Input
Amino acid sequence: MTTIRDVARRAGVAPITVSRVINDSGYVSEKTRQRVEEAIAELNYVPNALSQGLRFNKTNVIALVLSDVTNPFWTTVARGTEDASSEENYSVILCNTDEDVAKQDKYTDLLLRRQVDGFLLVPVSNTIDTIRFIQQQGVSLVVLDRQMPGVSVDTVRADSEGGAYELTRYLTELGHRDIAILSGPEDVSTSTQRVAGYQRALQHAHLEVDSELISFGSFYQDSGYERTMKLLALSRPPTAIFAGNNFIAIGMMKALYESGLRIPEDMSVVGFDDLPPGLLVRPFLTVADQPAYEMGFRATKLLLERIANPGKPPHQEIVLPTRLVIRQSCRAI
Output
């Protein structure tokens, strides 16, 4: 991990001069300040807000950086993280990025300054810059929910492609031929994997893949609502819709109800991710259920192992199976 002394050597100054630049205290000439700031940038140095560059061995604090803490899926992941952390006497700092790169970068910098012992991160999009930056600081990291090609990092995720395949195959076995999918952002691995599973199931049933019925967007309710309305306006609307996550499903169902369509009489629907039973009076949506609690718990245990043994190879990719839960939201054609 880069230290204040490394920055001082690169800039050709004393460590106290670097400290003055970082803390904006004491006189430093403009020319020297510029050299120090350039060295900080070149070395990706993150100042320690707790001890002015002297890192404690452990703080017993980890960071959980999620995409949308209002989604019950992620609150369940967070509960698994909290329980696993508590068993090892660790505390958790929770941050929410809203799938915003600027917020992710802001929290990453803040958490590194606070000297967290490790990160559980749901990366915004498929970019790997943040992951590499954290690793350059010598801080342990586990990626949640996403597959990250191009970088060696521990990951814990569910089988998005397999779950999507099972859901779509269930619809084809009911006789549906025109099946639409409303997925998440196209630059997020879970979104593309769910579309891949959907396409594989159609091909298995010897059905043509219609690009007009494949839609990428956000993982939020308004996106599900708007894209469902567009599907209903097609000259040949689908007979079934696959929602890429639980929030998309809520927006999708709202659009169907407002359009006077009944589920499943007029439209069969399925979704990825379940909602907690306590939030539903009568669960009826057929889903591919991800083990959210297990994902958070196992990822945390893996992270704590990395913190205890930072040099232990190799990195792991843990893929958890999904579970097909058949309810009353589909009918046979």
